[in-house]
C-alpha cells in the first residue's frame, strides 16, 4: 500500500486534548476509536492510516489521558480515545477521564460514529458494557470492531461474533454490522477504511 492515497490527503497528528475547550473547531466529520487498554487500538489505527508510528502503543496507566486528534486528509478527523479498564489506574484519573468522555460524546456535534474495539479472544466484558451504555445515552451510533482475528480459530471466531451480536440487541445506538479485523494480517482494514471514508 505504500504511496497509495488512503484518504483524501495525508494523515497527520493534530493535537492531544485534555479538556473540551481544547477540541478543534467542529468543522468536519469525525469518528472516534475506543477500547480496553491492550485491545489493539494503536495497531489498528496505524494499519488504517498506513503509518507505523502514528498512534503510540499502549499508554501507561496514570499518564495524562489525552484525546488524540488525527486529520485524515482535509475533510475528516480520526479521534483516538484513551484505553479504558486499567486495573491500576488511579481513581482520580479514571474519574477525570470519564467526565471528559461524557462531555465529548454528548457534545461533539460532528461525531458520526464511535468504533468500539473488542478483542476477538475475549468478547464483550463488563467494562465494555459501561461504554456501550454511555454511547446509548449520548445517542452516538457505535460499531463494534473485533480485533486480533488472527489469534483465534474458527470456532472462537464464530462464538465471539454470536456473543457480540446477541449483546448488541440491547443497545439502541448499535450499528448492526460488526467489522472483523487483524492488524497483523490486514483483515478488515480496507473495509473499515471505506466505512470511515464514506461517512457523511
Ligand atoms: P492498545 O493498547 O489498544 O493500543 O493495543 P496495541 O495496539 O498496543 O496492541 C496490544 C498488543 O496486541 C501488542 O502486543 C500488539 O502487537 C498486539 N496486537 C495488536 N493487534 C494485533 C493483531 O491484529 N494480531 C495480533 N496477533 N496481535 C495484535
TrEMBL record:
InterPro entries: G_ENGB_dom, GTP-bd, GTP-bd_ribosome_bio_YsxC, P-loop_NTPase. Residues 27-200 form the EngB-type G domain. Pfam families: MMR_HSR1. The keyword GTP-binding applies. Its cofactor is Mg(2+). Keywords: Cell cycle, Cell division, GTP-binding, Magnesium, Metal-binding, Nucleotide-binding, Septation. Belongs to the TRAFAC class TrmE-Era-EngA-EngB-Septin-like GTPase superfamily. EngB GTPase family. NCBIfam families: GTPase_YsxC. PANTHER family: ENGB-TYPE G DOMAIN-CONTAINING PROTEIN (PTHR11649:SF13), MSS1/TRME-RELATED GTP-BINDING PROTEIN (PTHR11649). Necessary for normal cell division and for the maintenance of normal septation. This is Probable GTP-binding protein EngB. The gene is yihA.
